[in-house]
Amino acid sequence: MWVPLLLLLLAVGAPADAKKKEEAVIEEVGAKQLEQLVEQHDYVAVFWYGRRCKIDCDAVLTELETIDDDTDKFGVQFVKINDKKLAKKYGISEFPALTYFRNKEPIKYEGDLMNEDEVLEFLTSLDAMELPDQIEEVNAKILDKIVEEQPYVAVFFSPVTLPGAILQTSRAAVSASARSRSWRTLTTRPTSWASRFVKINDEALADEYSLDSLPTLVYYRNRIPIVYDGDLTKEEDVLDWLVQNKSTGDDDDEIEDVSETMLEAMIDSVDYLAVLFYQEDDEDSEAALAELENIDDECDDRGIHFVKTDDEDAARSYGIEEFPTLVYFEKEIPNIYDGDLTDEDEVLAWLIHQLESDEIEDVTDEMLDKLIKEESHVAVLFYDENDKKSQRVLVELENIDDDCDKNRIVFVKIDNDDEAKEYGIEETPTLVYFEDGVPSVYDGDLMKEEEVLAWLLDQVENEMIEDVTDEMLDKLIDGTGHLACSVLRPAVGSHAYTAAASQLIPSAPSPLARPLDDKGQKKSQKVLVELENIDDECDEHGIVFVKIDNTEEAIEYGIEQLPTLVYFENEIPSIYDGDLMNEEEVLAWLVRQVSSDEIEDVTDEMLDKIIERNPYVAAVFYDKDDKQDLNTLVELENIDDECDKHGIVFVKIDNDEEAKEYGIEELPTLVYFENQIPSIYEGDLNDENQVLEWLVEQKESSTIEEVTDEILDDLVKDHGYVAVYYKNIDDETDEHGIIFVTTEDTGFAKSSAGIKKFPALVRSQTEEAVLKWLTDDKTLELPDQIEEVNGRMLKKFIDDDSDDVVAFFYKKKDKNADAILAELEHIDDDTERAGITFVKCSDSLAAKQYQVTRPAIVFFHNDKPVVYKGDLKDEDKLLEWLMEMKDTVADDVIEEVKGAQLQKMVDELDYLVVFFYDEKCKNCDAILAELENIDDEADDAGIHFVKTMDTAFAKSLGIHTFPTVVYFEDSVPIVYNGELTDENSVLDWAIKVKDDDSIEEIDRPTLLSLIDSEDYLAVYFYVDNSESSSVLKYMEMIDDEAAEYGIRFVKINDKLMAKKYGFRDPPGLAYFRKGKHIKFDGDLYDEEEILDWLTNPDNMELTDAIEKINRKMFARLVERTDHYFAVFFYTEKNCKQCEKVLQELEHIDDEAGAAGIDFVKIDDMELARQYGVFALPAVVLFRGDEADPVIYAGDLKNEERILEWLLVEKNPGSEVIEELSGQELQKQIDISDAIAVYFYNDSCADCAIILQELENID
């Protein structure tokens, strides 16, 4: 019997002697060296000493040398010099003394030189290190300090050299800031956007902050990073963005919304961070946010930053599937809150408890994967929250959490059985330590926290080869490029020994089947001692080293002697056949494997694993004692690298029995496997170029594999579906899991398929007919067994089958799965009789798609999966559950929705029917029972059917009586006026409306509601006569085009309403703009004239409000060459300033209009970017036939300044003095022969009066 064996990754070495840290010594320099240092470095500290010192120079030097390392971290060069002449040059007459050169300018230290802390503060304080009027370059340590101490910091993360245009922009920003007198201290002026502007060249730090490309500008607002995504060469845009973000930070106490990139940067840089993952337009999220806003300030006071994000990718990366969810990050370690998010006091208490307590954080499986990938040292307790032993262990281990933190070990816990199984953990609690992703299981007593801590510290400090389970080994093989695994014999009496001994049988062919003895185990231990001497060297060559003592795993790889060393390169194993006691020889072999291009030699079991794991495999069957075979291999070695580049794994195997199984009689022979299907090469193996060409062709093209009769026998035995013949439908049959091959074995054809004439394909028809026949459900059905399907076939069953589908997801060669399958076969017929299709699927991608952990049973109805939670081996309970699921879905009910969910459906679904009802409705249940009968038919027609008791939503549509059925098409509502108890009439009406392209018919309440709610509404008033019908045809020609301009087009047959709006003798057309209407007086039979009238900017202009336009309307405005118009670019999402700025602009709309400048607004970030706007909100003036619009760069909250700017831009000769500042002013000075500049200040009382006088002489 085969016995599982455990592979081991070796990453251990003998502990090296600890080296004493060299004492920090301040370097001695001469005069010339000092001059060079001052010239080359921004920060240089110089200790002057001489023969005659006022106080003991040596004593002072001893004190200062204690801070030398600290100054180094801040980029300060600290030197000492004995040069009286040079000292005199810098004003030093008494010794000892300290001078600080900052950007070549000397500053003398006047404090106590014996107080090293004061000296360090002097040298590293932000004020001392600031370089005026230039962007200073800082290192990571300085940046941390600046961000920690300053509220607003702008940082350029730059490559080695900063592009000239960007550097010029950054200098301009600094210059503008300096001119506004806000570089050192913040004022209330809008140009006070930063208390510090620095640059840093540190790619490692940029990676840590998840900055994908350099250069990048990051703005830290109260330590929260915000990344600039605009063009860094446009200085005005950069400054506007900085001003906007500073202003936003000064605003009210809303929790800040962040993107995924910002969130990752904050998690990396902020020690204590609370993140609310929420969904837009979700009632629960909105309720939680409303409460949590109340504790934002309290969190700030305690140093906890609070942010929110609706980024689904960010949530998914942390395993968050339900919203809202609160996650607290402490030094990058996440912890999920599981209480009531609407109880702000409880949330605040929990956050404070997390801040002050020493609890081990609870994480999801995705969080754990992220931590293992990103952190060097991670300790994970797999536990069961409901298990008393787990709780007792947790109490003990909480005592060492702080010690782990101090030693850079991240300690977390996880209650997830599926994740535990992935690492081969069968019992909880279990502690696993991960070092650079390599796991090691603790096998001591978890109740003894001191021993646990000692073991963890030993793992960190001492290099040793980690012990892994077979599941851990599989994970490492999949994810590690170079892996060495020592396979050891289990120790007598160990768990692995017991497991191995219980499965060994005397008749087993493997030498491992002999009785397990202490002698073999001792040899394994001796080998391990030797191998641990080369663990460090393996690390240096990028080889991960582990160990495993699982004989079943050894047998799976064809290993017959223990101990054995196996090397894996990109999942391909190679066995070492030398002396394991010779560590130098072993190391040389491993290093050679990393650097050489040899084709790996494998066993038959390894070959099976490689074929199973890799879609494209080339295997050379050879005889290592045959010189000709060896010469052929030398040629093939030349194409090994090229095969790697094409994704083809190349191996060799010396095994006659395995060759015979594939019908190979002559050696050497090359066999290519694609998705486990073999194909034999019949050309010249000594022509490596021809071999490579053939292999690439096999991979890239859709050839049907040529097989031997032995291979065909195996295919028929191993695969549920095999098609034998040649046709051009090979790709399609592959996608449905059908193996398509050719064979010359006519004997097999006659005996197995009854074929007498050749070539032949059973039921051969046209290409399309053959494919249809092959993939038909009846053809695929296998009698008396559960059919095996791949992901594509399963999707076909789910989509096409009229039955419900139940799928058993499993892994091949899993004994537990085989046992479950044996039980499931007993109920296959029962499910078939009940109309349930039963299939099995070993496709890992399909399992991942439906988010199931194998083995698992999943029931599908209408493509919706439901996972069975019971005992998979209890077929009676499973059958009972399946019958219940079948009965449940048979009683189809119309889906109940409300609030945000209903609004989302109205916005996103093309065709939707909503049944509105309320609690007072007596006959609603009876009507619903009738309507349930047409739910499926509506689905078939592509119409989604839902019900709701959201009467507020109904009333917003002008619906006040219930029940009512409303049809929505592209968010436009149409009310059903027929009999609701006649479900067929409702269905026929909905389908008719869906298929009808005519203008929407409305009633009086709907008209009144639309007039109030729609910005632009065109209403065709008609009566039942021939003229109305004729005109209607012309109206319907422009209905869709009007919609593109944001104009809602409706029709109404209501004489009273027509008369009210001026049409005594319909038909007539009225145009409502924000409730105010105008009549069309032109030709109703000229559709082009009507469309021009509706879309004329003058007609679309709204009074008393800045009109909202779309892109189509914007294009119409731009076409007019005689027209000035100002565009307010904004966004309704995540823009706190937009609404406030809009309110200011509404105040000047009329005055701008009187001056011939129309004001409009548009929510379109992409369009804004086309005109150079990268930060919203923004105001842009379009000046008729002038090609380039002008962007307003001033204070958007100062309506008077904006109006002045608009008037000046429209008419530069007007009686208004133009306002300029910063680079714009400098540019005007540079290009003007003569210019008068009036400098003034907002706080100056007389300045405004003087300005009015000066404008009289402008």
UniProtKB/TrEMBL annotation:
PROSITE patterns for this protein: THIOREDOXIN_2
Highest taxon listed in the record's lineage: Eukaryota
Record-annotated Thioredoxin domain positions: 10-128, 883-1012
Going by the UniProt record, its keywords in alphabetical order are:
Signal
Q: Does the keyword Cytoplasm apply?
A: no
Indicate the secretion signal residues.
1-18
Query: What InterPro entries does this protein's entry cite?
Result: Thioredoxin-like_sf, Thioredoxin_domain
Q: Which PANTHER family match?
A: L 2 01289, LETHAL (2) 01289, ISOFORM F
Instruction: State the protein's name.
Output: Thioredoxin domain-containing protein
| Taxonomic lineage | Eukaryota, Metazoa, Ecdysozoa, Arthropoda, Crustacea
